[in-house]
Amino acid sequence: MELGFIGTFQSGAASLDANILDFCVLEIGGGLYLYTVSGAYGGIAVYALESGAPTLIDSAYYTDTSTIDYVAPILISSGTPMLVYGSSYLGRLLGYSLDGVGEIGLRDSLTLPAGAPAGFQSAAAALDLPGGEALFLVDDDTGDLYSYFNDGTGWDLSAGPFALQVETGESGDAILETVRIGTATYLIATTSFSDMVQTFQVSEFDGTLRAVDTLGKFDGVGINTPTAMEIVEAFGKTWILLGAAESGSISVMSLAADGTLSATDHLLDTLETRFDGVTAMASVTVGDRVFVIAGGSDDGISLFTLLPNGVLVHLKTLVHATGLGLENVAAIEAALVGDSLQVFVASALSPGVALFEIDLATLGVTKTTSGTTATTLSGGAGDDMLVSTGDEADTLLGGAGSDILVSGGGAVVMTGGAGSDLFVIGAGIKRQVITDFERGLDRLDLTNWPMLRNTGQLTAWNEGNNLILAFDGHVIEIRPAGSYLLRLSDILPGASLGAPDHALLSGVGFILYGTEASERMIGGLGSDSLLGESGGDTLFGNDGDDVLFGGDGDDLIWGGEGNDELFAEAGADTIEGEDGDDWINGGEDNDLLQGGLGNDYLDGSSGDDVLYGSAGADTLDGGVGNDTLYGGNQGD
Fold this sequence. Notes:
Layout: E1 3-9, H1 14-17, E2 20-28, E3 31-38, E4 43-48, E5 55-61, E6 68-76, E7 82-88, E8 93-98, E9 104-110, E10 121-129, E11 132-139, E12 144-150, E13 155-163, E14 174-181, E15 184-191, E16 196-202, E17 209-216, E18 226-234, E19 237-244, E20 249-255, E21 261-268, E22 280-286, E23 289-295, E24 300-306, E25 312-319, E26 329-337, E27 340-347, E28 353-359, E29 363-368, E30 376-378, E31 383-387, E32 395-397, E33 404-406, E34 413-415, E35 422-424, E36 432-437, E37 443-445, E38 459-463, E39 466-471, E40 474-480, H2 488-491, E41 501-502, E42 504-505, E43 510-513, E44 520-522, E45 529-531, E46 538-540, E47 547-549, E48 556-558, E49 565-567, E50 574-576, E51 583-585, E52 592-594, E53 601-603, E54 610-612, E55 619-621, E56 628-630
Parallel strand pairs: 29-31, 30-32, 31-33, 32-34, 33-35, 34-36, 35-37, 36-40, 43-45, 44-46, 45-47, 46-48, 47-49, 48-50, 49-51, 50-52, 51-53, 52-54, 53-55, 54-56
Antiparallel strand pairs: 1-28, 2-3, 3-4, 4-5, 6-7, 7-8, 8-9, 10-11, 11-12, 12-13, 14-15, 15-16, 16-17, 18-19, 19-20, 20-21, 21-41, 22-23, 23-24, 24-25, 26-27, 27-28, 38-39, 39-40, 42-43
């Protein structure tokens, strides 16, 4: 299953093809249409989606761009359907009417009712309800959420304001999505300054809102500056995928029927993927298979699939090359067209729309074990996904095709069969076996092993031709498909694991990994491990007995409450233990160490360090270098 480049298509009008901000795919009158929305002095182009390249059928130009604030396009269906693309400084929504075959009609606008804030809107969402249509808008000045309702007699303000920011009065880009679970309807919201997701239940009768739950950085999910959000319905559940630019992350959350949220995965960009500075995502569900595409400032796109437990698996990354149009990705959309998944990408630097395609004609079955008894799952001739759950000794037989085989925690035996297979290894402590690894063709994903960050941490040896890999109690036996000696370099040739990092979301504590960039990482209420890597990182442990590593670079490290262990490592770092009996090590270079409350141990290590014991009976050791020590006001 390959993500292949088909070509770039354009409308032929420079103002429509440059600076494309967003896409919208709508099904109208039995046809499927792609709408491109460009920025200032541009307009909207409409393409019919059919097998092969999209066909331009219509376009329209903005008449006044000096007073427009653009929003992700939505369709308001009350009266004549209107595609909304922005708002004016007077608070009106701006758009175009659409006819029954997807073409653009007259320019249209919607004036908000009395009580609505006058000014630009940063996000919009619309929803058909039994009693009428609901409209949700976020005020650009304050970041507050408002709900409006039209029962057929006109629009009225039904609820608001709801603060979407950490502090009221902040502004920032917002994202709104809606989803129905059973008989309940929910509005999902996030903003670039909130670093969290909020859920609201929507009244079926008048569109009023009831705040239900939040999940984000204060709960230990390392979200920094949300920029993209997707709602996925698969495996009998509802999932929220949140991309955040500054943390270079994609978070997966499960949305329960009562509107509550729980984190299932937190993916961090590495050198093997291209979603750092993520700005756009798209998702499509085909049967029991979910495809997710993400991109940003990293000059490329990455393709993932979602497992039944809410964990993302990396399938493919495409790196920009001349003509691909993947520089500084601005927008991504995807649609199922015939037997193909078409992926549309707009670049901030290149005109037009880049078209990529996945041929789904060979898409196979998706099967999952019960997790309670040892089970054998068999694939067929297609590209299958076989998933072992629980701790049972399951057997996975891929058969022909490019299969995905996912082990659980038991002594799982996996046979890929013919084709380019991906083996995703679970975090169990029982020895697992791959019976037919084809070097140069099959792939191995070990990123579910907690704390494994590079191949140098693996212990590798051979038993005959078979390769054994072990780390921290996890063991995998890999047997070659032919009569040859299988080596680690045949599977993972460099230091990288070949996939993005997964932060461990255990419900007790989190393990978050940094990258070479400067990042902000935030622990939760449990005992967390934050590993900063290189770059000038900012680490907050929050509650719990945390372990924080700054890595290379000039880092800022706060332990928070609890008895923490703080390792600044290389760089001119600033470290404060805050509450609790903390152990603080400055590492290399000239550091500033502050114990905070509690009986702390401060070790400057090498470099000319400054140590403040602060409150508590502290122990201060300057280490090597010309250090300055201040004990504080108790018996140090």
